[in-house]
Amino acid sequence: MSHHLVEYFTLIRSKALTWEKDSSILIEDGYEWRKYGQKKIINAKYLRSYYRCSYKSDEECEAMKHVQRIQEDPPLYRTIYYGHHSCKISLSNSEITLLEPNNTSSMFLSFNDNLQIKEQYPAFSSPLSVPTKQEPIDAINPYHNQLTSSDYPFSCDYKLEFDNFRHATMLSSTKSVPFHDGF
DNA sequence: CAGATTTGACCCCG
DNA sequence: CGGGGTCAAATCTG
């Protein structure tokens, strides 16, 4: 069963290896992350979680990511990646195409048919990509049954936005969800 | 017991 | 000074 995830990627800063990804369902991104912090962000309803690559100490891998839920209904999570993985260790899912932008173009869009959702994590098990531990998912469990692929049909209505940071955000949503919550 | 997470303190920078 | 990023000790988990 292919989940047609509709996601968008935005290169925030072309010099820094930084990009962000919003997804309406939690996906495995192929890496293991260790959480090292969590913060309440003003004007945001939800906590932001801070992760770094699990292999940072072993292999000097500097990759990090921040994950923050930005919307309740439907659930939407924003993941900002920093740096790239110098470690070779991924979850050995060759199916997973890593979500790393490879050039300095301001944006690109990806409709991931090839992103694999781990079967043992049906719709939600972890709001993040660390499958080894259960997460405090109480809040999102109510949405478990809503997040079937049928609720997220593949649709292609794009919305392009430019902000004063000269970075373009291509928003693609099945429901043209407005953004708010301080973003 | 080892490795991950939690959580408040610390700290940096605008 | 405060927001937000990181540290680290305590705690948790398997």
UniProtKB/TrEMBL annotation:
It holds the Pfam family WRKY. One of its GO terms (biological process) is regulation of DNA-templated transcription. This is WRKY family transcription factor. SMART domains: WRKY. It is found in: Nucleus. Keywords: DNA-binding, Nucleus, Transcription, Transcription regulation. Gene3D superfamilies: WRKY domain. GO terms for molecular function: DNA-binding transcription factor activity; transcription cis-regulatory region binding. InterPro entries: WRKY_dom, WRKY_dom_sf, WRKY_plant. Residues 22-90 form the WRKY domain.
